Amino acid sequence: MRKLLIGILSVLAFSLLLVSGIDYLNHAQGFTGDNTLTVYNWGDYIDPSLLKEFEEETGYKISYETFDSNEAMYTKINQGGTSYDIAVPSEYMISRMIEENMLRELDHSQIKGLEHINPRFLDLSFDRGNDYSIPYFWGTLGIIYNDKMIEDIPTSWNDLWDDSYRNELMLIDGAREVMGIGLQSEGYSLNLKNKQILVEIAAKLKEMTPNVKAIIADEIKMYMIQEEASIAVSFSGEASEMVWENENLHYVIPEEGTNLWFDNIVIPKTAKNVEGAYAFINFLLEPENAAINAEYVGYSTPNDAAKELMDPEIIADPQFYPSDAAIENMEVYENLGPEWLGLYNDLFLEVKMYRN
Amino acid sequence: MKLTSNSKGNNIFLFIIFVILYLPIFYLIFYSFNAGGTMNQFTGFTWEHYQAVFEDTRLIGIVLNTLLVAMLAALLATFIGTFGAIYIYYVKKKQNKKLLLSLNSILMVSPDVIIGASLLILFTLIGFNLGFVSVLLSHVAFSIPIVVLMVLPRLYEMKDSMIQAAEDLGANSWQVISRILLPSITPGILSGFFMAFTYSLDDFVVTFFVTGNGFSTLAVEIYSRARRGVSLEINALSALMFIFTLALVLGYNGIQIYGQKRREKAAKTVHFIESEGISL
């Protein structure tokens, strides 16, 4: 009995120690309760120094939480029980959240700096008039290859079917991305709603399987840097990090065009600190901050004024800041609705399971 | 064939298993000192990742949160689980006992995803705010069955005659519980506590569903960071956690050995007094 009592007391004492530690940390950072801004963003998707600077500049304290997929973020916000003031979903998820009335309509009179954003990234199909969202980062899907290991440099999606890449290709694990490769290789729209053609595309993708080494996600980055594979399909932001780590790697946007995607800042309906949320949006729109952020994260910024402040070498790189003509060729995902999305997923699953 | 614990084959097998289990951990710790910044190549020795851990107040806050949740959840679960086990032990009807045990086991084997999702639905249904308390309650919930399973065998090992004797000698039920029942199942309670503690510490799936409002635990945080490649800061943190748990285990064993020695010493003294015929 004495042993148990000692045990209980020591656990309680330790817990008290922890509580005071947490309290001390919160105080040291200046959290008091109503000045907190809760930000829900992708993991490692902002320069941490910006968070500190925002806190110093405005007096708000940021409670920063991260997610790893649009779906996880959607579920958290949709289920309630949370009060995020800022979230950063991708375009197809934004249109779904608008439809389901989960986002707060933005008061444009409170937003400063929208004029810095390239008009190309405003007023898009998923959020006309930017009533709900402000661009944060954008990027493309493309091919990364290692010039040491490959002789024929790929220039189009159709090159992925080439025999010389047998068992070398790594694909990103996404239904719309992989189906999109097939669709664009045949000149169709990424948002095609035609069952017969989609089935044909899936059949074409199955012919690619002898080339496919793996269908994975984040691991691609590591494998490519370590030269475990010579060619992969992944997102431009990931590619920029790979190119940074291994100079033999190069990123190509296929000539048929590709998917143009966006991560935008939104304010969920459940937000408590709306004033702080606007302050945060304005802070990120400032060219100087956008430039710092873009150099840290490695994805492409939609902020034209920021581009002028950045390392000219980065901006001049057509791999990550493609020309207007190249962008003309690109397409944004539209929300297909559950039925068509289901078909895309089913066909992708068939491709994944196909063995030859 | 006679199986002995120290036969050569056994030892080699044991050694291989330990190497397999510990190698990844040491590999991880080794690279926490890498100046290169990635796990690809060791380029030089540095403390900078450890420095980064201590400068990252958000990460330290998350570590403290994780430990606090684990401590309190294990404590509460041990309370509830111990009394649950005692209750199950005293259930008279065999069928009811079996039913209770099966319900307990179902919770043990049901997938974390199901538990996490159903807890999330429960919390949001009753309008509960996600955060520290929701995580704590969830951890208590999935730890209770573990404690029950750790305590029950001790109860069955206990001699019922001791309790009967105590009752015959006029002990009331509180005295029976505090003087006989609890002391004889203490080892079970302690191991239940530590099991619950470790379960809570490394739980990801359930926690993932019920965190919110800026509250996060280490498992969830590392998972979100993994999307962009785990930095060596996490390696450094893992090394620190490993040393911390190692110290805990060594400390616990030290206390056990110390207690055992003291008991042996006491037993020897009693023996000495008896054999020398010294009257007290």
From TrEMBL, chain A:
Spermidine binds at Y92. InterPro entries: SBP, Sperm_putr-bd. GO terms for molecular function: polyamine binding. GO terms for cellular component: periplasmic space. The keyword Signal applies. Keywords: Periplasm, Signal, Transport. It is found in: Periplasm. GO terms for biological process: polyamine transport. SUPFAM superfamilies: Periplasmic binding protein-like II. CDD domains: PBP2_PotD_PotF_like_2. Gene3D superfamilies: Periplasmic binding protein-like II. Pfam families: SBP_bac_8 (PF13416). This is Spermidine/putrescine-binding periplasmic protein. It comes from Jeotgalibaca dankookensis. The gene is potD_2.
Automatic annotation (TrEMBL), chain B:
GO terms for biological process: transmembrane transport. It is found in: Cell membrane. InterPro entries: Bact_Polyamine_Transport, MetI-like, MetI-like_sf. The chain crosses the membrane at residues 12-33, 67-91, 103-126, 132-152, 180-199, 205-224, 236-255. Its main location: membrane. Keywords: Cell membrane, Membrane, Transmembrane, Transmembrane helix, Transport. It comes from the Bacteria. The keyword Cell membrane applies. CDD domains: TM_PBP2. The keyword ATP-binding does not apply. SUPFAM superfamilies: MetI-like (SSF161098). Residues 63-252 form the ABC transmembrane type-1 domain. Pfam families: BPD_transp_1. It is a multi-pass membrane protein. GO terms for cellular component: plasma membrane. Belongs to the binding-protein-dependent transport system permease family. CysTW subfamily. This is Inner membrane ABC transporter permease protein YdcV. It comes from Jeotgalibaca dankookensis.
